[in-house]
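Incident log entry.

Two folding requests arrived from the same account within the same minute. Monitoring flagged them as a possible duplicate submission, but the sequences differ. Recording both here for audit purposes.

Request one:
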Amino acid sequence: MSFNLVDLLIIDWLVFCLLTPRFIRLPGTDGHPGYKNYGYHSKAFLKGCLFSTAASLLFAGIIRGVAALLKG
């Protein structure tokens, strides 16, 4: 979850949306409004959080099942 938050705040919002350095922009897309689309990045952040939560629950269940089998 920490990675998702860093990705949203620093990489997406700060670098892509606010600063938008030249090396990130595709040729011929200077000034395109998509580079300042904070909502797009927010939705991706929420999707990342949901995916991380689902994956964590799945792996926790697997580990718990394996531990129960080994315990006997």
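Request two (distinct sequence, not a duplicate):
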Amino acid sequence: MFIMPKQVFLTKGVGKHMEKLSSFELALRNAGIARFNIVSVSSIFPPECKLITRAQGMKKLQDGQIIFCVMSRNSTNEPNRLISASVGLAIPKEKKYYGFLSEHSAYGQTEKKAGDYSEDLAASMLATTLGLDFDVDKNYDMRKEIWKISGKIVRTMSSTQSAEGDKNGLWTTVIAAAIFITQAEPKKPA
């Protein structure tokens, strides 16, 4: 048997607490995923995988279940410090190919900048595997247009959470995650 994700949903959250671990727990709660056992995985969007809403995905999970995810997180206890965590997604046009997810966390980046950056990372990884030429020195919007024109990348997006550090110095944690809905399948013959 092997485990193959068939669906994925994006979520994000923020938490504040005097303890760093507790602020992470509160961010997980805010994202709706604190009740699961979370296993971080690398950044492949599986072939034939379907992007669904958070509400649809949550209905398919049970308390205590082991879930696989791509997660970005960031924390600070510095008052007013801007932090962000983002997961970018790039899906190829042909569903038989895999896509990419990327994790990005930053200090001082707005939600929009961090989201664009993570989306660009995922799209860049997918573009190189598809053999698309692109100039790394061009800005993201220009590369995005080239990828769209090529017709090989059908969709890019990101889920990003940013927050300012608590003014009283509490720990502030932000997370963004892509949660896989998995299904065990018989092992395919070699």
